[in-house]
Design goal:
Blueprint: H1 2-21, E1 26-32, H2 39-51, H3 60-63, E2 67-73, H4 85-93, E3 107-115, E4 128-136, H5 139-143, H6 152-164, H7 170-177, H8 187-206, H9 244-266, E5 273-278, H10 280-286, H11 288-303, H12 311-317, E6 324-329, H13 340-350, H14 352-357, E7 364-369, E8 376-383, E9 386-394, E10 401-404, H15 414-417, H16 455-463
Parallel strand pairs: 1-4, 1-5, 5-6, 6-7
Antiparallel strand pairs: 2-3, 3-4, 8-9, 9-10
Helix pairs in contact: 2-4, 7-8, 10-11
Bound molecules: guanosine-5'-diphosphate.
The site of guanosine-5'-diphosphate (GDP) has 19 residues, from helix 2.
Length: 468
């Protein structure tokens, strides 16, 4: 309840004060994105590259040699699962490299850095310790923030309207047609509806749609099978006492109060710096509807970063603010670098609307195209007389090397985001569909660049000023 929360906040505040006195600043870095966006790979690579500082030229503190030591430490939150760095790193760098298991829930990792302040010559006594607490959480959970301002009827109307148009929802619609929302609650019926709704959300995600609430239905963790996850949107009805409709509405409220709010209070509200990872290339490849849906989902997700808009959210999220947000289009190693600027421009355009509405309450923002782990090298080739920039990597399916061209991104993002307005849109035709690369063994030769793309620049934007 509220008293425990208040006490918790006070203790936390005091602890922060103490670490402040000891000059051990803490940066809480939130890493989010929809599932498969690249969170796990990003964190694993960021931490590995900070531990081994030779490959981060764009991070000033690393480049100038001011990071004297970097090491993992026990994290501050004892009840949050630890980000399983060692297992993920072993997957990526073992003898048969493979992609690690993706984010399923919230997790945390503390990396501590011993930094020599700028302008200070040698000597260990002046070293400062900066703790980087990385908090990994599914972007699906951020989408739930929108639910807090909706009631069951409002959410149902929107969710059903979206589902109406999607073939993935066919089974759910068929079941809904056989059900009377005002009939007395039957648990098996509620469970079947929830199951069909969950299956629909999963298929819609697979098909490239982003706006899939309630987010916890997709990644339930230990809430699986509990009443807070056993409801589904229903058409308007009388909802008499004891009916399916009445109970679904009650569970929707319980979901908001007992699942959504605690996450925002315990994790989200304490973040200083945030990176939002987005599989822009995947959405472009999935086509116009998926890209438009991603744009809307981004607007929803970003609502969480401007709590100023509502007194209610300000109360929930407190007064601390995220002061830097990086929007990173991931997996840029699928493209020759000549197309990276275009990818970054599309990333920026995707969040432009949310940005215009409120500049994220004063937070600095930036859009970038990155690859946390480069699985390809570049080459040029003349194909049918056309000079093409290709990327070469090992295909997961066949284990063989291939040099591929994913297609061309348009110079103007509007061609993708407003295809109707600007005429013919270009989509990633090309080889993109077969581009499932295996992680490259870390054997990039000198001259082939670091084993990531702009991960160092991302780190500079997110942390650089705090390592001064
Ligand atoms: P999460 O669900 O956000 O944790 O996503 P993951 O980090 O597990 O990434 C999902 C998948 O995207 C991985 O299994 C890889 O196939 C792919 N991926 C992620 N990062 C990169 C990258 O930097 N380069 C390439 N080529 N693929 C990536």
């Amino acid at each position: 309840g509220t008293i425990a929360d208040a006490v918790g906040r006070q203790i936390e505040g005091a602890a922060r004060g103490v670490s402040g006195l000891l000059f051990e600043p803490v940066i809480r870095l939130g890493v989010t994105g929809l599932s498969r966006a690249g969170k796990t790979v990003f964190i694993t690579s960021l931490v590995a590259n900070l531990l081994d500082r030779g490959r981060m030229p764009g991070l000033e503190a690393a480049q100038s040699g001011r990071i004297e030591a970097a090491y993992l430490q026990p994290q501050p939150d004892d009840t949050v699962p630890r980000f399983d760095f060692e297992t993920h790193l072993a997957a990526l760098t073992g003898p048969a490299p493979h992609w690690p298991e993706s984010t399923r829930s919230v997790s945390e990792l503390r990396l501590s850095l011993k930094v020599r302040p700028k302008g200070m010559l040698g000597g260990l006594s002046g070293l400062r310790t900066v703790h980087l607490d990385i908090v990994d959480y599914p972007g699906e959970w951020l989408l739930d923030l929108g639910l807090l301002e909706q009631d069951f009827a409002g959410w149902s109307a929107e969710a059903l309207a979206r589902a109406e148009k999607r073939p993935e929802a066919e089974a759910f619609r068929a079941r809904l047609a056989t059900i009377d929302p005002d009939a007395p609650l039957s648990e098996p019926q509620a469970a079947a509806l929830a199951r069909d709704w969950t299956a629909y959300l999963k298929d819609a995600r697979e098909a490239g749609y982003s706006d899939c609430t309630p987010g916890r239905f997709l990644l339930p963790g230990d809430l699986e099978g509990s009443p807070v996850l056993t409801f589904a949107p229903l058409p308007p009805s009388q909802a008499p006492r004891g009916s399916l409709a009445r109970e679904c509405a009650r569970r929707f409220e319980a979901y908001k109060a007992q699942v959504v709010k605690p996450f925002f209070r315990a994790h989200f509200a304490r973040i200083d710096r945030q990176v939002v990872l987005v599989d822009v290339l995947g959405a472009i490849h999935a086509g116009p509807a998926a890209l438009e849906d991603l744009r809307q989902a981004m607007t929803g997700i970003l609502g969480a970063f401007r709590p100023g808009r509502s007194a209610f959210l300000s109360t929930l999220l407190g007064t601390r603010r995220v002061d830097r947000i990086l929007f990173a289009a991931t997996k840029a190693d699928h493209l020759h670098h000549e197309q990276h600027d275009r990818l970054a421009a599309i990333m920026a355009a995707l969040v432009a609307e949310a940005r215009r509405r409120a500049d994220f309450a004063g937070a600095r923002t930036q859009a970038m195209a990155i690859a946390a782990l480069r699985a390809t090298v570049e080459e040029r080739r003349s194909v049918d007389g056309v000079d093409l920039g290709l990327v070469r990597g090992i295909l997961l399916d066949t284990g063989r090397q291939a040099a591929l061209h994913p297609g061309d991104l348009p110079e103007d993002p509007a061609a993708l985001l407003h295809p109707a307005r600007s005429g013919a849109a270009q989509w990633l035709g090309g080889d993109y569909g077969v581009m499932r690369f295996a992680p490259a063994p870390l054997t990039l030769r000198p001259g082939e660049g670091p084993p990531h793309i702009r991960l160092d620049r991302a780190a500079q934007f997110l942390l650089g000023d705090r390592l001064g």
